[in-house]
Specification:
The chain is built from 13 helices and no strands. By secondary structure, it is mostly helical. About 35% of the residues are buried.
């Protein structure tokens, strides 16, 4: 095929033609040339990058659970990398924190030692974010200069690096919402649940794209027969992965509104299956994103829908002959889903202890990872 295209290019566009002819001939030859596969190092790099993003998500969850996210009231890309060292520097940092609503309303009796703990929690999260940025950008420059990236891969890498930078700006935009003075509000100061969900959603997109691309480069594709059942299984797996993603994203609203602290019972919410204050806000649409009762109810429903879809996916996959590695991915998905449901119920019944809640948040990332692995196993082989 390649020889035929090259021959046609030579016949139609002779080498001594005009500039436009020579350019078109070059374009035909370029399109006919096979795309070189990216070396395994690129795939391993993207898997490492997805691991750093996973660490940032987990650390961010712990920062939110320990209510440490508003302890650093400034944002400087380089200046804040050096933590306070002397007593005077710590007192100056503490005095800056005392000017904002969280200290005035919630932590007015906080000591300097207690402040250091929450400050270091937020500091570690921000510093880890910088590690994530370097893990993407520096190797990307190296691989680009080495010529190891194909044209489509270059576009993918540019998007990933841009998303990393956007993620950092979005994090500061989220923190700012918790530092604003709200004279008419008596609520506990916290970041906007909308911005928190956007920050988490952006991180999940970055994680998913990096993991998917890395797996696509490293895992050899199965040459599965394109039957109707396989097509249905592939679509089912895609839909289930989207549901898992949505369930994880709804957890951001639960965390942002402390919705896990209302109705700490299961399977009922208090004495009812459907609580009376489910639609207490007006207009009704506000309840979905701003009513803690509705937010928890929605998260429960999404969690139940996810485990149901995963179980159905597993049972359906048993009717199709699949390779051993693919079968292992389906079984792992069901196993992780069962553990995740157990963690969620335990977290609720025990009034959201920080270690258990952090493990539950990490479990959502593990569940999404296995779902992406399964999608990679079932991806269509290009003709």
């Amino acid at each position: 095929m390649l020889r035929a295209v090259r021959g046609a290019a030579r016949l139609l566009l002779p080498a001594r033609g005009g500039g436009a002819e020579r350019w078109l001939r070059w374009r035909l030859l370029q399109q006919a040339a096979p795309q070189a596969a990216a070396p395994p190092a690129v795939g391993r790099w993207l898997l490492v990058c997805s691991g750093t993003v996973a660490g940032a998500v987990v650390l961010g969850g712990v920062t939110r659970l320990t209510e440490s996210g508003l302890s650093m009231v400034d944002w400087h890309l380089v200046k804040e990398m050096k933590p306070p060292r002397t007593q005077q520097e710590w007192e100056a940092e503490f005095q800056k924190y005392q000017q904002f609503p969280e200290f005035k309303i919630l932590n007015h009796d906080m000591t300097l030692t207690e402040f250091k703990f929450i400050w270091y929690m937020e500091y570690s999260h921000r510093m880890w974010g910088r590690v994530v940025g370097l893990a993407y950008i520096l190797p990307a420059v190296y691989f680009w200069r080495k010529g190891w990236l194909s044209r489509p891969m270059k576009g993918c890498v540019l998007v990933l690096c841009g998303l990393v930078c956007f993620q950092g700006l979005l994090g500061w935009y989220m923190v700012k919402s918790g530092l604003e003075e709200k004279p008419d509000s008596y609520d506990i100061p916290r970041v906007s649940q909308y911005r928190l969900a956007a920050h988490l959603g952006s991180a999940l997109v970055l994680y998913s794209a990096s993991l998917w691309t890395g797996l696509s480069l490293l895992l050899p594709q199965h040459k599965l027969p394109e039957t109707r059942k396989l097509l249905h299984l592939r679509r089912f797996a895609h839909g289930t992965t989207a549901l898992i993603f949505l369930t994880a994203l709804s957890g951001a609203f639960v965390a942002g509104l402390d919705a896990g602290l209302v109705y700490n019972s299961f399977p009922k919410m208090g004495e009812c299956w459907i609580p009376d204050d489910l639609l207490a806000f007006s207009p009704v649409l506000r309840n979905i994103f701003e009513n803690p009762t509705t937010v928890q109810f929605d998260h429960r429903i999404l969690g139940i829908a996810s485990i149901t879809a995963i179980t159905a996916l597993y049972l359906f996959s048993r009717r199709i002959p699949l390779p051993r590695r693919t079968r292992m991915a389906v079984t792992s998905l069901l196993a992780v889903a069962c553990v995740q449901v157990g963690l969620g119920i335990s977290t609720l019944l025990l009034y959201v202890p920080t270690p258990l809640a952090a493990t539950h948040q990490s479990g959502s990332l593990a569940l999404l990872s296995v779902a992406l692995w399964l999608m990679s196993e079932l991806r269509r082989v290009p003709k």
